[in-house]
């Protein structure tokens, strides 16, 4: 057997997070999982608003005020973006499951399309709803 001996200073080092840069496809894959969980606060606000609507006028007024406040609006816009992002990323993965789009350039372009598409859909929805 070949014997390889490294002294402490000669050992190869693994790339550290500050040195290693994740590819865009990995970042968007991680972001897909984050947005899946990130939609929860918006969902809870919507459920609270709907339950308050059938409970009493005072409860509805409170929930409606919270939902229409700047913080509630910010949470709902973030939830809307997360929903669009998660939808487009799911469609991208469905495309991958068909065996297509496995080239590096195609994967990177699809990642950019998911990011840009989710932002455009969010802005379009805000414009239409305003």
Which spans have pLDDT < 50 for at least 5 consecutive residues? Answer: none
- Number of DSSP helical runs: 5
User: SSE string, helix = H, strand = E?
Assistant: HHHHH
Structural category is mainly alpha
Beta-strand percent range: under 5%
Query: Biggest β-sheet: count, sense, barrel?
Result: none
CATH class of the domain at 23-37 and 70-129: Mainly Alpha
Helix content: over 70%
Mean pLDDT: 90
Distance between the termini: 73 Å
Number of strands: 0
CATH fold assignment of the domain at 23-37 and 70-129: 3 helical TM bundles of succinate and fumarate reductases
Subcellular location: Membrane
Family: Belongs to the cytochrome b560 family.
Function: Membrane-anchoring subunit of succinate dehydrogenase (SDH).
InterPro entries: SQR/QFR_C/D (IPR034804), Succ_DH_cyt_bsu_CS (IPR018495), Succ_DH_cytb556 (IPR014314), SuccDH_FuR_B_TM-su (IPR000701)
Your description of this structure?
By secondary structure, the protein is mainly alpha-helical. Helices cover 75% and strands 0% of the residues. The protein has a domain at 23-37 and 70-129: Fumarate reductase/succinate dehydrogenase, transmembrane subunit (3 helical TM bundles of succinate and fumarate reductases). The protein has helices at 24-38, 40-55, 57-68, 70-97, 104-129. The longest helix is centred in the middle third of the chain and has 28 residues, at 70-97. It is elongated, with a radius of gyration of 22 Å. The mean pLDDT is 90.
């Amino acid at each position: 057997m070949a014997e390889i001996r490294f002294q402490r200073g000669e050992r190869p080092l693994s790339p550290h997070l500050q040195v290693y840069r994740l590819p865009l496809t990995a970042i968007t894959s991680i972001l897909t999982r984050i947005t899946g969980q990130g939609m929860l606060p918006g969902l809870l606000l919507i459920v609270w608003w709907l339950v308050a609507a059938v409970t009493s006028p005072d409860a509805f007024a409170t929930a409606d005020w919270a939902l229409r406040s700047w913080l509630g609006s910010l949470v709902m816009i973030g939830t809307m973006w997360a929903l669009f992002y998660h939808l487009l990323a799911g469609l991208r993965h469905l495309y991958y499951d068909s065996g297509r789009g496995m080239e590096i350039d195609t994967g990177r372009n699809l990642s950019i399309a998911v990011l840009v598409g989710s932002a455009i859909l969010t802005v379009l929805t805000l414009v239409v709803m305003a």
